[in-house]
Amino acid sequence: MSIIEVNGLRKVYGGRPAVDGVTFAVEEGEIFGILGSNGAGKTTTVECLEGLRRPDGGAVRVAGLDPRTDRAELTGILGVQLQESELQEKLTVREALELYSAFYPNPADWRELAERLGITGKLTTRFGKLSGGQKQRLFIALALIGRPRIVVLDELTTGLDPRARRDTWTLIEEVRASGVTVVLVTHFMEEAQRLCDRIAVFKQGRVAALDTPTGLILRSAGGTVLSFTPSRPLGEDDLADLPGAATIERRDGRLTVHGTDATVNAVISLLARRQITAERLRVTDATLDDAFLELTEDVEN
Amino acid sequence: MSASTAVLRAESRLFSREPFTLFWIVAFPTILLVILGLIPSFRDPDPSLGGQRVIDLYVPVNVLLAMIMAGIQALPPVLSGYRERGILRRMSTTPVRPASLLAAQIVLHFATAVGSALLVIAVGRIAFGVALPGQVPGYLLALLLAALSALALGAAVTAVTPTVRATTVVGMLVFFPAMFLAGLWVPVQAMPDVLRRVVEYFPFGAASQALDQAAGGAWPDWTHLGVTAAWAIVLIAAAVRWFRWQ
After folding, report:
1. Which residue of chain B has the CA closest to A146?
2. Which residue of B has its CA nearest to A88?
3. Of A6, A297, B68, B115, which is most buried with the most CB atoms under 10 A?
4. B76-103 pLDDT tens trace
5. What span, in angstroms and rounded, lies between the C-alpha atoms of A104 and A144?
6. What is the reported pTM?
7. C-beta neighbour count of A147 within 10 angstroms
C-alpha cells in the first residue's frame, strides 16, 4: 500500500491554479523526488501533505490520515523541513534541539543528530548567528528528531557547500535504510539523480512525468549523446535522415547529436561509407538535467 | 518534561535575553515614580484631591503603566515576529500547537508586569510613604482585569496587523492613548468631571478608578470592574477572531 496518496490535488491562489490535478503515490521506504521550475507547484503540493494548506480539490492521504483533520496523529509521524522558516533569533542550537525533542514521545538522540550533521561545535551559538548552511543542517536535524515514518524535505541542500551536501546525502540514504520514507523537493538534478528512486517532474501545477531517474532520461528524445569532430565536413543531406536524432548541433567543426542507440549506429555506418574519421568520438548518456530541460520545454510550447 | 513546560522554559530563557524589553516593563514604571516623587510639591497633601498627595495617585498610574508596557509595547512585536518569521508555521508541523508558544509569551509578559506592579507599590511605600492598598482582594482583582485587557489589546493589535512593521506602528498609535487613559499625564481622579466620566468607560480609565478606590480601602465600584472586564472580553474575542497564523 502506498504511504502517501495524492489524487487530483488542486489549489488555487487568486483565481490562478498553482496546483492543478496532481496525482501521485509514494511507496513506503522510497525516496520520492519532486522536481520542477520555480512556481511549478512543488512547495504548495508538499504543504498540502503537511497539512499547512487546505486543498481546493482532490484528496490527500498520508499514512491513511487526512493532513487537515488528523493533525495530531500526522504531526507525530511526519518530519518536516520547510523551505522558508526560522527559529527564535536568540535560541541556541542546543536549546532548539532540546525543545523540539520535548515535542515527541520517543525522540531521537539529538546529540547524535548534531554530530551527524556537524553542528556539535555550534551548540551554544544562537540561531541568529548561524550561517545559512548551519541553519539548514539544524532544520534537517529538527525534521528527523521525532523519529518520523515520513520526512518531507523542501530544498534539502540549498545553501550547503559541496562537502556538507554529500554528507547530507549520505545521511538521507541512511535514514531511508532505516525504513523512513523520504519526499524530497529539489532544484538540484545531481541530488535527484543520486538519491531518488522515483521522480515526479512538475510543470505549471501538473505532473509532466513520473518515473525513475534512468527512466526519465531514457524516455527523453535525446537520451544518448554522440559527439565527434569529422575529419572532412559532412553535408546537411547526410545528416537529414538519421533515425531517432532529436537535435544536431554544429560548433567549431564539432558535431553533437542527441538521439538513441539507433542514431549512433547510423552515424557510425555513415562515417564508414564516406570514409570519414570521427576524431575525439564520445558517446554518453544524457543527464537528468537534459531530460528535465526537455520535459519542461514541451509543456511551454 | 511535558511539551508545554519545555516551551515555557525555552521562552522564559529567551525573554531573559531581552534586556531592553525588561527595562521598559520592570524598571521604567518605578523609575518614573521615583522621578515624580522627587518633585517636592507632589509629596504635599493637596486639598483639591481630597487631601491626597499627587504621588499617592501616581502609584496606581504606574502600576497600570507596567501593564501597558508589557501588553501593548512589548508583547505585540514578539507575537507578530513569531508569525512573520515562520516560527509558528514550523511549530504547527510538530505535535505541539503553536498556540502554546503564544500562551507562553502572554504568561511571561503577565508575570513580569505583575512583578513590576509590586515593585512600584513597594518603592512607593518605602521611598514616599504611600499607603499599601487598603482593600487587597479588590486591588488584585482590578490589577488582574487591567493586565488582561492590556494583554488582550496587544494581542488584538497583533491580530489585525499583517507584519511586524505594521504591528509596531499600530501598537504605538494605541500606546499613547492608553497611557493617557491610565492617567499618566493627568491622573484620572484629577481630571475635570466631564473628561473623567468619558475616560471611565475606556479600558485603563476604568481600571485606574478601580485601583484608586481599592487603594483607599473600599471595594472597587462594580461598574469600573465590569467595564474593564468587558473590554478584556471584547478584545480577547477580537484577537481570537482575527488572528492569522501565517
Report:
1. B94
2. B87
3. B68
4. 999 999 999 999 999 999 999 999 999 9
5. 11
6. 0.86
7. 15
